[in-house]
Amino acid sequence: MCGICGYISRKNITLEQLKAMNDTMYHRGPDDSGEEIYEMRGGWQIGFAQRRLSIMDLSVLGHQPMHSPDDRIRVVYNGEIYNFHELREEMADYSFRSDCDTEVIIAAYLKWGIQCIERFNGMFAIALYDAQTGEIYLVRDRIGKKPLYYWYEDENLVFASELKPIMKYPGFNGEIDGRVLSRYLFQQYINAPDSIYKRVYKVEPGAVLRFHQGKIHIRKYWDLKEVYHRAQADLIEDYEEAKRQLKARLTESVRMRMIADVPLGSFLSGGYDSSLVTAIAQECSESPVKTFSIGFNEEKYNEAKYARAVADHLGTDHTELYIGEKEMFDLVESIPHYYDEPFADSSEIATMMVSRLAREYVTVALSGDGGDEFFCGYNVYDNVKRAQRLDMLGGMVHGLCALPGLKQMHVESRLPFRVRVIAGNREKESKTQFGAGNYPIRAKAMVKAMPPGEEALPVHYLAESEYGVKDWQIRRMLLDMDTYLPGDILCKVDRASMKYSLESRCPILDKEVMECSFRIPHKYKYAAGSKKYILKELAYDYIPKELLERPKVGFGVPLDMWLRGPLKEQLLDYSSYDYLKRQNIFDAEYVSGMIGQYIKTGDAGPATGANYSKLAWSFFVFQQWYRVYTVGNPL
C-alpha cells in the first residue's frame, strides 16, 4: 500500500520538485520513498515517484520505482495483487529478484503486454513506462478500490494517488470546475471521471489510460455492465449450489487477503458483512484474529455491544474504543488535509477513528465493504421496489395535476410528500434516484450560473438506461456499484485508513466474488422482503442468528447540532454575502439567505429550513477545503 505520483512532460522538472510532490503523501507510505527522472525520445521527460508502506517483502528489494533487469520497464504502483504467487508460477522463465507483487507486474507485462492486467486479482493503481515503445500506462483496479488522478493539458500528463502532488506540480493553476459543484452538494462526493479541478480527472474503475507522444487513449478492460450481463447468461439456479460457490469464493478471497508480512486484523461492526468476513478469517487463522470496533457514548448510534458479542462467539482478540461527540468533532478540521477534494460523507469521521484504533495494533485490516451494493443491503432498495410498483399510478397523478385548471392551482405541490415524490418521478434516466424533496432544486440554485458554453452536471446520474435492466432494484444496485461505492465508500475508507498508514482490504470486492454475485439470481439476494438473504444465510453458518438479526443502525454525526452550535460562526462567515461575492463561486444572495434561514430553523423548523443540514454540511466542507487549498495553500 503506497502513494504514487509522476509526470510526462516537455518541461524541465527537477528531482527536488518531484520529491516535493511525492512527500505530500508521506502518510500513505512512511517506510520508504523513491523518485526517478527518465529522458525520453522527442524531448519528453518522465518522472516516477512512490511513497511506500511496506506490506509484502519488507526488504529494499521492494523499493520503487522498480525496473526490469534491462531497464525497459519502469513501474510505480499502489495496492496489492493477491494472486501474484499463482502468476509467478506461470512465469518460471523470469528471474525474480524479490518476493513482492510489484516485480510480478513487470514480468507479467513482458510476457503478455498490457493485457496482463486482466489476469490481476487485487486492488491497484499502476503507472508503467515501456522505454521500448515509448508508451506510459495508467491502470486502476476493477471496482476503484485504489485512487488515481491525472491532469492532462497541452500534451502533458501529471498523475497521483491524491490531488496534493498534482497541486504541487510546477505551473498547476487549480481552476475549480464549476460543473461539478451542484452534483457534489447533492451527492456529497465527486464521482469519476470528474474532480474538483478543471482538466484533472480520475481514471475510472476498470480502465487503462495509454499515453503516447502527447496523446491519451482510454479503454475499459472490465466493464460492470458487460460483466453483469455476461454472468446473467450463466445463472446458478440451484440455491444450495449458489451458496456453496459464494462461500468457496469468499473463503479464498479472505485467505488471499490474509497474506502479509506485517500484523493483520479485521474491522468488526457487528453487522452481517464485517462479521462474515471476520468469521471466515478466524476459520483460516491459526491464532485469534485481532478485531476492532468503535463504540459511541450516544446509545442510539452504539453497536459496539453487538460487535463484542460476535467477537466473543468467534473467539477473536477484540479491542474496542468508546468515543464521544468531542472526539468526533476534533477530527473535523483534519478532513480537508486527507480528503483533498471536497468530500462530505460524515461517516468518514467514524472510519478515521476505527482506523486510528486498528493502526495501534496492525498494519492491515479486513473490511466488509461491498456487501450492501452486491447483495442488496441498503434500505433504499426497499423504497425503489415500492416505487416501481407505484410508478404507473404516479404517472396518472402527475398527468392529472398537469391539466390546465389543476396546474394553475399547484395541486401537485400540495400532495402528501410520498405521493408527490412518486408523481414527480418522471425522468426515465433517474427513476431509481427519486426523493430528497427540494434538495436537487436547492443544490442547483446554490451555485453561480455557468458561463456561456458551459453546462453544470445534473445532480442525478442520468444513465440508468445504459444498464439494460427493467427491475429498478437491480438497476439501482448497479448504479451504486458504478458511483456511490467507488466515489463515496471506497474513497472514504482509502483516505481514512491511509491517514494512519493502515491498509484496508475488502474480500467481498474480490474479482471472483463480484462476478459470482452476478451469477446468483436476484431472488436469492432479496427474498420475501429480506435484503442480503443469501449473505445472511451464509453468515448464520458461523454466527447465531440472534447475534446478527436487528435493525440497521448506521452511524450519524449530529450535523444539525454542530452546524448550529460550535460550527455556527464558521458557517456564517463562509456564507456571508460579502465573502461569497468575493469568492465568486456560489450565488451569494441565495446561499446567504438559505444558510441564514437554516441556522434559525434547523432541521426541525418549517419548510423553508427543514432538513437541510445535509446541504449545509456539503457547503461547509467545500468552504473548509477551499480555505485550506485555495486561501491557506498548505502545500
Helices and strands in order, then pairings?
Layout: E1 2-9, H1 15-23, E2 32-40, E3 44-52, E4 66-67, E5 73-81, H2 84-89, H3 101-112, E6 122-130, E7 135-140, E8 149-153, E9 156-160, H4 163-168, H5 181-187, E10 200-202, E11 207-212, E12 215-220, H6 224-232, H7 239-257, E13 264-267, H8 272-284, E14 290-296, H9 304-314, E15 317-323, H10 325-329, H11 335-338, H12 348-359, E16 364-366, H13 371-375, H14 380-401, H15 404-408, H16 417-424, H17 439-446, H18 472-482, H19 484-498, E17 503-505, H20 511-519, H21 533-539, H22 545-548, H23 559-563, H24 568-574, H25 577-583, H26 588-601, H27 613-632
The second-level CATH architecture of the largest domain is 4-Layer Sandwich
- CATH topology title of the largest domain: Glutamine Phosphoribosylpyrophosphate, subunit 1, domain 1
Assembly state = single chain
Strand count, sense and barrel status of the largest sheet are:
6 strands, antiparallel
* Cα-based radius of gyration, to the nearest Å: 25 Å
Molecular structure report:
With 635 residues, the protein is α+β, with helices and mostly antiparallel strands. The chain has three domains: 2-222, Aminohydrolase, N-terminal nucleophile (Ntn) domain (Glutamine Phosphoribosylpyrophosphate, subunit 1, domain 1, 4-Layer Sandwich), CATH 3.60.20.10; 236-377 and 483-548, Rossmann fold; 446-451 and 558-635, no CATH class. Helices cover 41% and strands 16% of the residues. It has 27 helices and 17 strands. Strands 2-3-1-9-8-10 form a six-stranded antiparallel beta sheet. The protein has a six-stranded antiparallel beta sheet with strand order 4-5-6-7-11-12, covered by helices on one side. A five-stranded parallel beta sheet has the order 15-14-13-16-17, with helices on both faces. Helix 14 (380-401) crosses helix 16 (417-424), helix 14 crosses helix 18 (472-482) and helix 18 runs parallel beside helix 19 (484-498).
